[in-house]
Amino acid sequence: MFLLLAAVFFGVFATNVAIGSARGVVFLNDVGEMLMLFAAVASFVVAVLRSEAARNRKRHAQDIQGRNDNE
User: Fold this and answer.
1) Where are the transmembrane segments (predicted)?
2) 4-44 per-position pLDDT tens digit
3) Domain annotation covers residue 70
């Protein structure tokens, strides 16, 4: 969910840059671009942290059951 959201934010940013370089007209100003990149990075960080937490929960559950596949 958050990874898809990050891709959408970055896609809007990239589209703005592409249109700006091709036509010279942008729909986001400098502050808008900064906020779009910040939203993309924040969403990506949340996605990575949630993934890490899920992996750690799974590993902890395997350790409790005595079936750690990494050893």
Assistant:
1) 32-49
2) 999 999 999 999 999 999 999 989 999 999 999 999 999 99
3) no
Number of separate domains in the chain: 1
Instruction: Indicate the Cα dihedral angle 18, 44, 5, 34, nearest 10°.
Output: -40
Asked if residue 20 belongs to a domain, the reply is: yes
Work out the angle between the directed axes of helices 2-23 and 30-65 (0-180°, nearest 10): 150
pLDDT tens per residue, range 43-53: 999 999 999 99
Cβ proximity of 2 and 44 under 8 Å: yes
Per the structure, the complete domain to which residue 40 belongs is given by: 2-65
The predicted model scores a pTM of 0.79
In a domain, residue 15? The reply is yes
- Is residue 40 domain-resident? yes
